[in-house]
Amino acid sequence: MAEKTAFTIAVVGATGAVGQKIVQLLEKKDIPIKQLKLLSSQRSAGKKVFFANREITVEEAVPESFEDVDIALFSAGGSVSKKLAPEAVKRGAVVVDNTSAYRLDKDVPLVVPEVNEQDLQSHNGIIANPNCSTIQMVATLKPIQEAFGLKRVIVSTYQAVSGSGNEACDELEEQTKQYVNGEDMTAELLPVKGDEKHLPIAFNALPQIDVFQDNGYTFEEMKMINESKKILHDDALAIAATCVRLPIFTSHAESVYAEVEENGLSVKDIQNTLGNADGVVLEDDPQTQTYPTPLSAAEKEEVFAGRVRKDLDNDNGFHFWVVSDNLMKGAALNTIQIAERLIQNKWL
Amino acid sequence: MAEKTAFTIAVVGATGAVGQKIVQLLEKKDIPIKQLKLLSSQRSAGKKVFFANREITVEEAVPESFEDVDIALFSAGGSVSKKLAPEAVKRGAVVVDNTSAYRLDKDVPLVVPEVNEQDLQSHNGIIANPNCSTIQMVATLKPIQEAFGLKRVIVSTYQAVSGSGNEACDELEEQTKQYVNGEDMTAELLPVKGDEKHLPIAFNALPQIDVFQDNGYTFEEMKMINESKKILHDDALAIAATCVRLPIFTSHAESVYAEVEENGLSVKDIQNTLGNADGVVLEDDPQTQTYPTPLSAAEKEEVFAGRVRKDLDNDNGFHFWVVSDNLMKGAALNTIQIAERLIQNKWL
């Protein structure tokens, strides 16, 4: 059989925050596209989207949509992936899934290409894209783990509303306008759409992302914990997370404490390791107030790290600050990079 | 000499964010006031302030302002305290200082009344009010230390702009309006007035509060570290801080990891200890999405704690979330409570 040189790509959830970003990135990236199918729920079907100067009509995603599709990029929520990803696989497509539906499934590789590209080889038709807050953290933890060994991680996050989709961005925008106009702020969505209480996000901090689990942690916190262990191939890694939603539109930030195996390391050792890591940019110079922020990282492709310093009590402990665009590397870009590596390595 | 039943109080920095709050609180609190002197820089002198239905003219603070003053409450910046607090003491006043000028001076008690009231007895005319982010954290750490022993603390903060004064609130307000009007945001103040670079705070997160120290930590982070050790009377306490400024007007939040000496504790043990602590209110029930937020804590007097959970790897480790109004318990209220305890205990 002749080797394929162009591919039919389906984007499921094409009108959502991540789906829109995927379509934008596909225009700029190196995947040779034979045909692009934009799929969505029935509600959004019929919308028109411009791609490469051509108008594409969004169609309702049904099992038959995946006939002749080579790669299907899913980001339409876990229930859609549960229902339609197996249908896509059955029809010969490889699925890259942006939801949490398959991430902890032991037959599904969970991949950040810079971190564990080799895991892609063992796919059975579905590859899971990790949670946004996990991706940027493991991009910095992996080079440290490889160079010095990693014992323990404690992270507190500073997360943007776009992680909850376009509706959450609209809610922050609306509450901000209400504040400026001297009106009471109305909250109808955050912290979690289906939960009982809704709280204002503008000028506030919500220590709840996704629903609470029985152990008192939120699902977002458990995602960071469990996904990091899987991606870093270390079930024994001690790791804890506190996840907080903030009035920021784009980019998640993280305050990370990492304890390494190797003794006697300096700040410079960690800085060099991060600075040389694939996909990571070191922005770290206190003397010139150089450090990443959500606004400086927005629309960029890389993971940015700064504020590296040594714990004052534990010689093996280091603190640093990690920022990345949650819709780019945190979602759409990583999804596309997975597809690129599948093609380049002929692992489709 | 007959015991005093009413006191002459001076407020230095009366037109600032904390000073204004002090004046408001003095109206509501139990300190019997003979005379209230409102003092400021030359620039703000002449302004009129209402107090107990009477107009008081703000005067320029000079050494002679403190003649006959019993208690002087300073919050006009470190340099003003350095210059004028000794002048006030020389004239017989007891100073409660809200700046960092004297906090680590070993002859100056650094006090949160619920935590270390007894330290007030050793004052030599000056008592220091701790940093806002320190106060709310030690209010929760002290009962834990007392009940179970405290080995280690790692904190990441979520801090409001009002900690940088009224100007910083104006800057957030201005940038927010610029965003709503589709204009570019202008940054002229934050993260630090005197530093070279200024960065937008609206819809952003700045991992710098106060200037950088030689060890890579900011002054705010070192304040939290050093002040907590002093207030908790434990120089050997392992403690690290990452301080972040956010687009929030009022109330600081903190993600705290605390490691205790005692083994085998449950979440309930920590919750009960926090819930019974003086000045602390436990708001913690994941089942009903009950936890404190900056907006819910604003204008309140207490320190609010929630999201208590056990570390998943360390049996002695607990994570929790602490929120308090940074101008109230974090500054003005704690200052006034110190004055109240001095009077009640006859320790003036």
UniProtKB/TrEMBL annotation, chains A, B:
Pfam families in the cross-refs: Semialdhyde_dh, Semialdhyde_dhC
Annotated catalytic residues: C132 (acyl-thioester intermediate), H252 (proton acceptor)
UniProt KW keywords: Amino-acid biosynthesis, Diaminopimelate biosynthesis, Lysine biosynthesis, Methionine biosynthesis, NADP, Oxidoreductase, Threonine biosynthesis
Protein's pathway: Amino-acid biosynthesis; L-lysine biosynthesis via DAP pathway; (S)-tetrahydrodipicolinate from L-aspartate: step 2/4; Amino-acid biosynthesis; L-methionine biosynthesis via de novo pathway; L-homoserine from L-aspartate: step 2/3; Amino-acid biosynthesis; L-threonine biosynthesis; L-threonine from L-aspartate: step 2/5
Keyword NADP part of the UniProt annotation: yes
Record domain Semialdehyde dehydrogenase NAD-binding: where: 8-123
GO MF annotation list: aspartate-semialdehyde dehydrogenase activity
EC number: 1.2.1.11
Positions contributing to substrate binding: Q159, R245
Residues the entry annotates as binding NADP(+): T15, G16, A17, V18, R43, S44, S162, G163, N326
Domain of life: Bacteria
Catalytic activity, as annotated: L-aspartate 4-semialdehyde + phosphate + NADP(+) = 4-phospho-L-aspartate + NADPH + H(+)
InterPro entries registered for this protein in UniProt: Asp-semialdehyde_DH_CS, Asp_semialdehyde_DH, Asp_semialdehyde_DH_beta, NAD(P)-bd_dom_sf, Semialdehyde_DH_NAD-bd, Semialdhyde_DH_dimer_dom
Residues reported to bind phosphate: R103
Signal peptide: none
PANTHER family: ASPARTATE-SEMIALDEHYDE DEHYDROGENASE, DEHYDROGENASE, PUTATIVE-RELATED
Family per similarity comment: Belongs to the aspartate-semialdehyde dehydrogenase family.
Assembly and binders: Homodimer.
Purpose: Catalyzes the NADPH-dependent formation of L-aspartate-semialdehyde (L-ASA) by the reductive dephosphorylation of L-aspartyl-4-phosphate.
Name of the protein in question: Aspartate-semialdehyde dehydrogenase
Protein source organism: Lentibacillus juripiscarius
